Amino acid sequence: MVIAGGSSDTDEFANELRQMAKDDERIIFTGFVQGEELDELYSNAYVYTLPSDLEGMPLSLLEAMSYGNCCLVSDIDECASVVEDKALVFEKSNVEQLKERLQEACDKPEMVAGYKKAAADFICEKYSWDDVVDKTMELYRG
Description:
The protein has one domain: Rossmann fold (3-Layer(aba) Sandwich), CATH 3.40.50. It is built from seven helices and five strands. A three-stranded parallel β-sheet has the order 3-4-5, with helices on both faces. The protein is α/β, with parallel strands linked by helices. The termini are far apart. Helix 3 (about 60-65) crosses helix 6 (about 110-125). The longest helix has 18 residues, at about 110-125.
């Protein structure tokens, strides 16, 4: 398991996680990553998980889907509206349901493969730069 990203305002929680995982070589904390290292993480992920209770537009989710990742996200609107039916979803803050969805992903590689296959085409079509530019121009032309 790779836990990537900075801890922002959750240093205490991040330290608690590191302490809990200190004797398990299968759990890696990368801290903030970018560039080729981030590309490698997205390219090799089995499941990308975003268990947020609060988000703006989750750019890392868009990136993960564009790499063809199976995504597992909380049901907050900011995530659910991005993934629609192209990802696994769990009720926000419901740790047991998150655990169940992760186990389901581990037990059903064919399901994960289906989400992976759909993710990149879906997200690249939904959020294409050409469409973003067109919509932005429409706003300015008003």
